[in-house]
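Hey team,

Filing this mostly as a record. A colleague (T.K.) asked me to run one chain through the structure pipeline before their review meeting, and I want the input and output archived in the tracker in case anyone asks later how it was produced. No errors, nothing strange. Just documentation.

Input sequence:
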Amino acid sequence: MSIDISRVARAIRDLTHESLRPILLGRAQEYVAASLGFGSLAACKAAAKLRPEGFEDNSRFVVVDDDALWRRARLLEPDAAWSRARLVAFLTAAIDRVHAGTIVRSASDRPNLSISAAISEALGISGMHDFDDVRYTVVENNHGEVLGFRLHLDEPEWEHLFDEINGRHGNLDVFLPVSVRLLLRGCATPQERYYLHGDQVEGDPSQYFCASCDLFVELPHFEADHPNGNASRYFAEQRLWERAVARFKLPRRRPINAPNALAQSALAEREAYEAGRSDFHRWIVNQTERGGALGRLAVDIKRDPSFPVHASTRDELLEYLRNAARDDEPLRAFKRAWREFHPLASDE
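Output structure:
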């Protein structure tokens, strides 16, 4: 959640006020910033300016980086009267005082949870649920750095939890900070880099990942071994990654701006494909929800990578279907579709 650093710092000051060595407000602010993973209060404030427009943090979950907190405390106060454990306890109590009901966990006290249990813990939802199937989007700041994950919990399988989720977070789309990864079993930070088709290998700019071969290869491999399928494979792999559920995606990482040798040419190929599609093709692929033979034809055309999407005359399309169809039903469905698309067209 978005911690109110000033208020939490004041709470720390108040909690230590009766002691012989109370923590001063300015120092307490530095400690809160350090506990959130920032090197200084100034760095924390700078990071807040990089949040994307409309960013909302409705989570009720915080992971305290107690290692960073203690390093900052030893630097600013070498002869500090407080032990590490006591300082963390003051911080946790202060967060609870300012943001009542927030779940606070220490980064050094990882419970080694499964993905499902970790998400349940972060959401504050009791019981076991299949949250490892949850779909989510990655939220980045304006420099492309991951801030966290927006969980999309408005799906039928969690309908029985809607009131509980909405009551706690005010929304069925719940943001969780990237620090939630600290709760994952045996994973302080995600170690497994996920590569899309054409991604450059980290640490070796001469190597790229080929998803078709499941190998790291040199750049000429793509044109030599897969001259016609790289764009479709790139977009297919991109869709799989974007739609992947939590149990697959959370322990892995792929930078949004990861260098990819195929992305530019794949986008250009898709733009050319879109520009070349006929008006009839644009219309027929939107008829897939219709019943009967016409709906089945629309599905077949949409799935057919060889369909002449640029063809705009009845004769061209009919000739293709005569060669591709196994019976007369697609031909009759096409003639019906053509009459519907061109009401004044002849059936001949």
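Quick notes for T.K.: The longest strand covers residues 146-152. The radius of gyration is 28 Å.
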